[in-house]
Amino acid sequence: QVQLVESGGGLVQPGGSLRLSCAASGFTLDFYAIGWFRQAPGKEREGVSYISSSDGSTYYADSVKGRFTISRDIAKNTVYLQMNSLKPEDTAVYYCAAERSGPHPPFVLLRLWKLWDYWGQGTQVTVSS
Question: Is the pLDDT at 24 greater than 90, yes or no?
Answer without folding.
Answer: yes
